[in-house]
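WARN retry 2 of 3 for item q-0093 after timeout on previous attempt; input resubmitted unchanged.
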Amino acid sequence: MDYHVSWKFAVLQFQTEVHSDFVHYVELFGLLKAERVYKQHIARLRDEFIARRQNVYLHHLDAVLHKLLPDLATVADRSVEAAYHLRSDAIDLICLFVYSASAPDC
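OK item q-0093 returned
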């Protein structure tokens, strides 16, 4: 199930389809308990999705950093601007980073 699905839509889906387990659960524990369990499940799905995205991001970040700085000794004694110019001619930096309009200026 997609973690974007709202409780209202899920209830309609569960009631219209053949979901005898859902109906039985609601009869035993009530609709409020079913909603609480559903929202916990959706939160867990969202957290798992975010964790997967973070892992992919960190994997790509490692590859990008190795492309940018294969050897730290080449930039160890330089300023940030000098290191940037040293590496910017070797690699197209635009293809490695995503710029956000909402990010604060450094």
